[in-house]
Write a sequence for this structure.
């Protein structure tokens, strides 16, 4: 028996015990997943083709591993334009093993997944110590405001000059300024 399923925008022909790589789906290794989008079922007599899906058909599978595909290099170039772009991409993939193909409304018995809301409810019962945020002391935040407050407002129509930051002189920093190398003078032709 075989089926054609749709997942990740692609169609796959599958049979029981097939192992295939599909676009990434949620689930850890060992978990059971179900593919309800079955487009065709065949193998026993006349194949059943859906319009677009086969009613009551489903495929169950087991996640083998979560992985990534090979690296694909994207290189764009426009000649004589000094334009080159290089990018890489690795697609996330899931390897699954097909377990069974169900028809006539039979649904696979999937093990119950743990709810993500349950751990959150447990955590809500326990009180965690609140993290204290470090605030800047008022003395550190205030100097900018004090500098602005001490500057008198210029008279209307007066020209305002912005003060430049003074560079420390070599004598103040204790560093000696290196002497520039002398260039040899060119001789004049006689």
């Amino acid at each position: 028996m075989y089926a054609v399923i749709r997942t990740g925008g692609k169609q796959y022909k599958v049979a029981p015990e097939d192992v295939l790589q599909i676009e990434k789906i949620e689930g850890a290794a060992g978990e059971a997943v179900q593919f309800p989008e079955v487009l065709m079922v065949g193998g026993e007599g006349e194949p059943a083709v859906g319009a677009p899906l086969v009613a009551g058909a489903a495929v169950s599978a087991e996640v083998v591993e979560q992985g990534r595909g090979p690296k694909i290099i994207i290189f764009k170039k426009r000649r004589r334009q000094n334009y080159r772009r290089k990018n890489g991409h690795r697609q996330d993939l899931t390897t699954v093993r097909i377990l069974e193909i169900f028809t006539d409304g039979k649904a696979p018995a999937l093990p119950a997944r743990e709810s993500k809301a349950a751990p959150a409810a447990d955590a809500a019962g326990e009180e965690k110590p609140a993290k204290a945020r470090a605030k800047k002391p008022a003395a550190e935040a205030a100097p900018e405001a004090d500098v602005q407050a001490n500057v008198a407002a210029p008279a209307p129509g007066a020209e305002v000059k912005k003060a430049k930051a003074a560079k420390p002189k070599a004598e103040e920093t204790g560093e000696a300024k290196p002497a520039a190398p002398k260039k040899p003078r060119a001789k004049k032709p006689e």
In short: The longest strand covers residues 58-68. The CA atoms of residues 95 and 190 lie 87 Å apart. Residues 112-121 have pLDDT under 50 and may be disordered.
